[in-house]
Q: What sequence folds into this?
């Protein structure tokens, strides 16, 4: 398994990879405050709670940005291939204000998931980020993408916040980050 910098000819192969995810759980936000007591600007409370769904769902990526646009906007795109077969890719963007490299999209061929390919891409993303002087790696995924959130947590990323309308269809995004 080799990780390398993507080349323009890799774009059609990346676009052909399925980014759909099956999930049996979702993350729900529970606000924790007393509905009778007046709210003060110094107190906010909330907790993310993992809830099992009555049946598995298959979802497409929450971001509606076409891969061609992301490819041109990305600071770096890395791919994993084995025997000339593309198995996955990660597209990284840079946030100058936050001083972080962000995993804008990470996709692994569905039949090859849970075989270390996503981890290899995340490690390579961290190495690339350090090499260009960035000290934080960030990522985001939809709250209903339980496998994605668990992946980032397993790879040492910490929950860093959420946005209730981050994605084009108004889906909740969970944010993760880790220092490099």
A:
């Amino acid at each position: 398994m080799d990780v390398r910098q993507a080349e323009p000819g890799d774009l059609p192969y990346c676009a052909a990879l399925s980014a759909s995810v099956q999930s049996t759980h979702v993350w729900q936000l529970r606000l924790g405050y007393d509905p009778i007591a007046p709210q003060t600007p110094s107190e906010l409370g909330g907790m993310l709670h993992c809830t099992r769904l009555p049946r598995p769902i298959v979802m497409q990526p929450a971001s509606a940005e076409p891969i061609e646009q992301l490819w041109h906007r990305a600071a770096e795109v890395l791919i994993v291939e084995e025997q000339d077969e593309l198995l996955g890719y990660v597209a990284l963007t840079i946030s100058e204000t936050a001083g972080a490299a962000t995993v804008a999209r990470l996709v692994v061929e569905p039949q090859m998931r849970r075989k270390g390919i996503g981890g290899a891409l995340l490690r390579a993303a961290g190495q690339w980020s350090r090499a260009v002087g960035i000290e934080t790696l960030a990522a985001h995924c939809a709250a209903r993408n339980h496998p994605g959130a668990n992946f980032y947590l397993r790879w040492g990323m910490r929950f860093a916040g959420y946005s209730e309308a981050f994605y084009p269809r108004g889906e909740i995004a969970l944010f993760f980050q880790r220092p490099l």
Q: What stands out?
A: Residues 2-29+44-179 form a domain with the Aminopeptidase fold (CATH 3.40.630.30). Helices lie at 11-16, 67-73, 117-131, 146-154. The chain has a mean pLDDT of 90. The chain has one domain: 2-29+44-179.
